[in-house]
Amino acid sequence: MVANKPRIVIVGAGIAGLSAAQQLCRAGQGDKFDVVVVEAAPRAGGRVFTSEFAGHRVEMGATWVQGITGSPVYALAHDAGALTEDAGGHLPYERMDGPFPDDRVLTVAEGGDVVDADKVAKPVEELYRGMMDAARAGEAGGGGGGVEEYLRRGLRAYQAARTDGSGSKVKEVEEALLAMHINRERTDTSADALGDLDLAAEGEYRDFPGDHVTIPGGYTRVVEHLVAALPPGTVRLGLRLRRLDWGETPVRLHFADDGAAALIADHVILTVSLGVLKASLGKDAASAAGAIAFDPPLPQFKRDAVSRLGFGVVNKLFVELEAVEPEGGGEEQQLAGAAAPPDFPFLHMAFDGHVAKIPWWMRGTESICPVHAGSSVALAWFAGREAKHLEFLPDDDVVRGVQATLDSFLPATSSSGATSRWRVKRIERSRWAGDPLFVGSYSYVAVGSSGGDLDRMAEPLPRGGVPEADRTPPPLRVLFAGEATHRTHYSTTHAAYLSGVREADRLLQHYP
Ligand SMILES: Cc1cc2nc3c(=O)[nH]c(=O)nc-3n(C[C@H](O)[C@H](O)[C@H](O)COP(=O)(O)OP(=O)(O)OC[C@H]3O[C@@H](n4cnc5c(N)ncnc54)[C@H](O)[C@@H]3O)c2cc1C
User: Given the DSSP bridges, would you call strands 50-53 and 56-59 parallel, antiparallel or unpaired?
Assistant: First the structure.
């Protein structure tokens, strides 16, 4: 033993690392273990990060508590006093009016025609949902071409069976609506393409029951609450693990800052993202900015799970808007199509590709919606290649791309042609892929992986299961927590929380 009580070093002060620390520090009134949390960033919270933009409280990472009944994250937010409307000040916050009901959504086709909700938008949505449910239940059947082609076949069959004589324009809009739903699924799952998802394995995924809610005081309040419950000095910021020597006890942790002394530990709980682990095992690991060197290398079963599981990119783009009078003003101005609402609408966009000024990456989003009804701040979500591309674009290009999109979808006719009555003032965006401390956003079960890989992610090292001659239990040198280690709740904050508690409990059982 490193000291007179077991020393546990937790790597990462996201929700998983902090919940593990809390569980360990609670045990034996904090006297049982020597617990340290090392965090590379100058802040705790990881992929939970509340920020401010244009006078609003916005979440750059996690937004929702996904189901409140039984959710430990909801309980924490409640205990932190962060669920009341004036928590932490009087800023309006992202999604303060909850998930928006369908009847507030305005679906518009490229060029500005409003899509008939009852005759066109809803039937396509129902068709889409039914087909995805069937695919997740393993009932998609053969046919080849992957899940997107399966969806297109379903739409063609629906169109062929229809007898109302809808013309080719309606069919084009329906295809664009299908692409819109696919974009939504991509951001929900973080997969670049639906064909990357193992839909049958995804059937194991569960949210908690009950409403999905946001946190008025900001998600970061949950993080602050967890940190405040730890003994002062437990969390050490600005320490990036660079090398982990785990071949024998004590385990040695070496940090990127040469001035930082190595730490030794009886046990390490590693909570870095699956993206960081992938970067650490990839062929460019030696030069990857956030990579961790493992000595000895991680065993093959762990490497396989890390490389097979999916870890995608999802980014959020916040846009501040102002309403402007169309050029020329006056009585003769006609607000066309969708442009009539006084507030910025909950705009869902059916891109069909005919307006050349709209950049390709804008076509990857499903919607641009005010962060709450009546707000001048709107939010668009992006996944995959569009989300990555967005990270590197100069602000001006992003502003131009969003403006061209609004000019097309919410046009106001004027003497100079179609412009929107909404002008983009400025933007803010997340950059989860380019940040070497995350290298992406959240995990999914990719084709070729399985729920079993999520379990393998959670297995401690050295691997147990082979009884040693003297029946000594495996030494639990490296334990793994984090959202990508939870078989049924992966990709969420509650998965992160539960995984931290799970690994703390594993150590508590090790020292009964
Ligand atoms: C855009 C976006 C939207 C999301 N929306 C939701 C949502 O609505 N609801 C929901 O439940 N979840 C959502 N999530 C997912 C949720 O945020 C994560 O699942 C959860 O926060 C992960 O927590 P974690 O502790 O597992 O990992 P992390 O938060 O990634 O924590 C790991 C920590 O390790 C640190 N670290 C990395 N490398 C090192 C190193 N070498 N040395 C030391 N420290 C290191 C990192 O800085 C980080 O703080 C979203 C995520 C994103 C990005």
Answer: antiparallel
Q: Judge contact between 444 and 189, C-beta under 8 A.
A: yes
Determine whether the shortest distance from the Cβ of 214 to ligand 1 is under 6 A: no
DSSP state of 329: -
d(CA 6, CA 212): 39
Cα(470) to centroid(ligand 1), Å: 40
SS (H, E, C) 399-420: HHHHHHHHHHHCEEEECCEEEE
Asked if residue 11 lies in contact with residue 271, where contact means CB atoms within 8 angstroms, the answer is: yes
> Is the shortest distance between the CB of 66 and ligand 1 below 6 Å?
yes
Of the two residues 103 and 510, the one the predictor is more confident about is 510
Measured distance CA(148)–CA(65) in Å, rounded: 29
512/497 Cα distance (integer angstroms): 23
Q: Is 64 in the pocket of ligand 1 (CB under 6 A)?
A: yes
pLDDT score of 329 more than 80: no
* Identity at 237, one-letter amino acid code: L
Q: How many helices (H) and strands (E) does the chain have?
A: 13, 24
Residue whose C-alpha is closest to residue 10's, from 239, 290, 249: 239
Q: How far is CA 432 from CA 61, 337, 456, in A?
A: 9, 36, 25
pLDDT in tens, 280-308: 998 888 888 999 999 999 999 999 999 99
**Cα–Cα distance list, 114 to 105, 118, 339 (Å):** 11, 12, 10
CA distance 476 to 509: 11
- Reference 475, options 245, 250, 264; nearest CA is 250
- CA 85 to ligand 1 centroid distance, Å: 25
User: Residue 148, exposed/middle/buried by CB under 10 A (0-12, 13-18, 19+)?
Assistant: middle
The fraction of the chain above a pLDDT of 70, given in percent, is 92
Q: 502: which 2 tokens?
A: 């799970």
CB 127 within 8 A of CB 155: yes
- Distance, in Å, from the CA atom of 187 to the CA atom of 191, rounded to the nearest integer, reads 7
Residues contacting 305, CB < 8 A, separation 6+:
449, 453, 454, 456, 457
